UniProtKB/TrEMBL annotation, chain A:
It comes from the Bacteria. One of its GO terms (cellular component) is plasma membrane. It is a multi-pass membrane protein. The chain crosses the membrane at residues 12-30, 100-121, 133-154, 185-207, 243-270, 290-314. Residues 94-311 form the ABC transmembrane type-1 domain. The keyword Secreted does not apply. InterPro entries: BPD_transp_1_N, MetI-like, MetI-like_sf. It is found in: Cell membrane. One of its GO terms (biological process) is transmembrane transport. Keywords: Cell membrane, Membrane, Transmembrane, Transmembrane helix, Transport. The keyword ATP-binding does not apply. Belongs to the binding-protein-dependent transport system permease family. This is ABC transporter permease. It comes from Sulfitobacter sabulilitoris.
UniProtKB/TrEMBL annotation, chain B:
The lineage of its organism: Bacteria, Pseudomonadati, Pseudomonadota, Alphaproteobacteria, Rhodobacterales. It comes from Sulfitobacter sabulilitoris. Keywords: Cell membrane, Membrane, Transmembrane, Transmembrane helix, Transport. Belongs to the binding-protein-dependent transport system permease family. This is ABC transporter permease. It is found in: Cell membrane.
Amino acid sequence: MLAFVIQRVAQSALVLLIVGLVAFSMFRFVGDPIDNMLGQERTQADIERLRTTLGLDQPFPVQYYKFLANAAQGNFGVSYRQGRPVSDILMERAPATLELAAVSGFLAISIGIGLGVFTAIRRDGFAANAIMSISLIGVSLPTFLIGILLIYLFSVELGWLPSFGRGDTVQLGGWSTGFLTKSGLLALILPSITLGLYQMTLIMRLVRSEMLEVLRQDYIRFARARGLRERTVNFRHALKNTLVPVITVTGLQLGSIIAFAIITETVFQWPGVGLLFINAIQFVDIPVMAAYLMLISVMFVGINLIVDLLYFTIDPRLRVDRTKAH
Amino acid sequence: MVDTSPPQALKTEERSTFRVAMDSDFVYRFKNSPVAIVATAVVMLMVLCAVFAPLIAPHNPFDPSSLNLMNGFSAPMTPNAFTGDTFWLGTDDQGRDVFSTILYGMRISLFVGAAAVLFAMVLGVTLGLIAGYVGGWTETIIMRIADVQLTFPAILVAMLIFGVAKGITPVEYRDQMAIWVLIIAIGLSDWVQFARVVRGATLVEKNKEYVQAARLIGRGSGAIMLRHILPNVLSPVLVIATISLALAIIAEATLSFLGVGAPPTQPSLGTLIRIGQGFLFSGEWWILLFPAVTLLVLALSVNLLGDWLRDALNPRLR
């Protein structure tokens, strides 16, 4: 167990180091930072001085180490475009993305598992078949088209919901939240559905196929034979045993919710880090790109690690198999 | 077809390659799957339309001399109020025929998608073969890189590569290079699937007798990989390529829609949707709707074809 944990943690650390190297190389090789910072009227002496103050005359490994040390403290330099520290900009934008991701994740998990169980139990029912067919179209629809479709339906035609932005937000300490105002909550509805829909269909299809598998097992038949209520059998016995793969996939999907937020945020002009990243790419704002890359990889690697460890704790069979294998 | 007599079990004469192919299990399955036939027909039709776009399109939407600004915002199938011209699918703000822009856009979408998949396939298959056949440190390095990349969603990887490449190319070449950068970005984000599958298959194949025999008669590693192992691992590659094509088309559309893909001077379907979204609120729905439907039909057909191919080529499902 301990060896496994150490191995996984070491692997995660290695991934982060590699991503850090990529981010650092972006700084180093995409455009010349000296060029970016000094204006047209510079002298050779200016260039030399700035090179020394920025530490660009030092060997590559030393620079890389310094970059990592700075990044670990949340210091990613100054945005080329906005002229403000990148960490400030990120902190300001993060709540919008995290709130959106949390709501979509919640929607995806709760509705996804619910519908998955429903379609598995009523396998041949009309409603279950209809849901399955609709979900197939949902998987083929690109995220941005779903967003545009929802905007057209609920904002342009019906005029019920806002089509862009976060609505009014309330400042709680350094955190701006949209949960506390009516317009903030209304503004959350369309983006969170757009973002969560794909993950929801994935979870639903997974839960359904796992449930169908489990419902065929003998212990389910015996549970029924013992006269347990249908609800107990379905939820206590069947659903519980489908949860291992569901948790793994769901965990990994949570990571992609943050990544796909980029698309949703662009469609809805949601002022989060994803929109910031897209603008950074369009204007080749390297510090913002590097910081976003580091931030999201910490998140991804963290989620992967947690899922791996969780998998290990949930399923006792894995532990036995591993010790046997070694 | 000259030979129409039913094939007999004890027929000894040579049958043409065409006949053998037509009698194969694969073709039989294809003929009996309406979904596969319709999907293939749709994809073929769209590819033909894209290839012959200059011949089919009523006018070249990117040749300013063939445009008339007075034609702007014509609704579909209704004569324009000023010029009296009628456009099947309407026109956009600059009087460009939407049908023509879709044909040209589809051309770019399909080209980028196919080229990106081809790039990913060549890269992934090569690395997968090497990893599986050579093993050792080479394998560890290649597969670790693959694992790390798999941690991140492909679309994010593509965006990053696009952003970095954009930073490297000089400003005056950015628009010209955008299509090629896009192909490389999507291709690089997608090679992992190929490499993993090919490596797995190669590990199985390389211990079989025919490979040992080839080694014994002294063929070099390169020849064994290319001439002996590669043909035997190709069928899963074909399936992944088809499914990847649908993903690549959607990825290209997404990137272009986000404004980090095909430039407005060479619009793909994604760029057209991005442009059309701006007119949604003013009621010109056709500028958005038709490119969106085209993209959807294209992606769905390729997807269905890929699903069918996967089932048809998977011996375990027979």
